[in-house]
Amino acid sequence: MQPTIAELEDRVAALPPDVRAAAERIFAVSSTVGRLDPPAEMREWITKQFGSIDAVTAQKIVRVTNLVMLEGALFNDLRARRPVEVKGADELRETIERSRNDPFCHPETGTPADTFGRIRGKHGLTASNVAKYDGYHGVLVFDEHDPLVPMDAETIHDRLLTARRWALAANEQDPSAKYYFLIWNCLWRAGGSIVHGHMQMTVTRGMHYPRVEMLRRRSLEYDEQYGRDYFDDLWLVHDGLGLGHERDGARVFASLTPVKESEVVILGRPGEDDTSLAAAIAGVISAYRRRGVVSYNLALLVPPLIADGNDWRRFPPHARLVDRGDPANKTSDIGGMELYAASVVAADPFLLAEALASGEN
Ligand SMILES: [Zn+2]
After folding, report:
1. For position 86, what pLDDT does the model report?
2. Is the pLDDT of residue 233 over 80?
3. d(Cα 55, Cα 35) in Å, to the nearest integer?
4. What is the distance in A from the centroid of ligand 1 to the CA of 182?
5. Residue 289, SS3 per DSSP
6. Running DSSP on this structure, what letter comes out for residue 312?
7. Which among 267, 238, 259, 277 has a CA at the least distance from the CA of 324?
């Protein structure tokens, strides 16, 4: 039988002792049942919507907290069992086609260059972002307008390499700008203001962005407290539960504390750069697409380009990807819970893991 997140407590309890110990170091797992009493007038609608009255009158909610990072998710089994609907596919296709010949379709004249010039890759060209997040803020404009054109590992590798070359050029111009960060906001639902496929890169000064720096600090504290590598333990737990697979040397897993729907974490080998994640990223994106996901965020978390006097030795290059939902949906996927408390999640990590591992790429 297909495992589900509803059985997470039992699955953790059944892990081999060393894996279970890691699970208990990192995660707190609990479940609760939410109950309600529907009026007779609602029964027909409830049955149609959720399959049965019983499914709604007692709803199991699994709460997972990462005790190291204090990140958490609330999984509702009822929401997880609802079928994934893909709506608005025609409208999306039309929007992508209608926006052809935008400035990114002719980046040499449609976008500014950085003061250190442009970096050209086989599958894209860099530009300087017009309205910047940070002192160095560039764009890697894809050679393809359509952001949903399938991308193989070679194309992703080239784009990561071109983006990294851009970061190194910025760092050469200003050696104090050493903290490289990359994001890929695919479509407006994920915060992308331009439809044309693109990634964005920043290189910041002083210290890394706070969430990245917090992860570095917490992982070092974990080692001090337990004498164990945090990232190795994180992988051990996810892999032990059947949530992980390896691709081209990278560890890929469906997160137990996703920031939002269907979050995947890819951990590379410490000391390698992010281009080593290309095949794994391509695999996740193709699994997303098979599941109907068209709008997603990707972020790269990597050590600084040059030494900054801090200990980054344990910090593997890694990528996080998250599904941002149906572009036709006017309700935001991020509400008060996600901003201030914990993420409310419908997608079951066990189902996601199966889709990820079965992918051909
Ligand atoms: Zn375009």
Report:
1. 59
2. yes
3. 10
4. 20
5. helix
6. -
7. 259
Look at the block and give the residue holding tokens 């050696």. Answer: 175
289 C-alpha to center of ligand 1: Å?
21
How far, in Å, CA of 295 to CA of 326, rounded? 7
The pTM assigned to this predicted structure is 0.95
Q: pLDDT at position 361, please?
A: 44
- According to DSSP, the residues that pair with 158 across neighbouring strands are none
Q: How far apart are the first and last CA of the chain?
A: 26
What residues does each domain of the chain span? 90-361
Name the strand (E) or helix (H) holding 33. Answer: strand 27-35
Give backbone dihedrals phi and psi of 31, rounded to 5 degrees, phi first.
-135, 160
The CB-side HSE value for 250 (13 A sphere, CA atoms) comes to 28
Topology of domain 90-361 in CATH is HIT family, subunit A (3.30.428)
pLDDT digits (tens, 9 = 90+) for 38-93: 999 999 999 988 889 998 999 999 999 999 999 999 999 787 556 555 567 889 99
Q: Output the CA 65–ligand 1 centroid distance in Å.
A: 41
Distance 99 CA to ligand 1 centre (A): 7
pLDDT in tens, 3-24: 999 999 999 999 999 999 999 9
Give the 3-state secondary structure percentages of the chain, helix then strand then coil, rounded to 5.
40, 25, 40
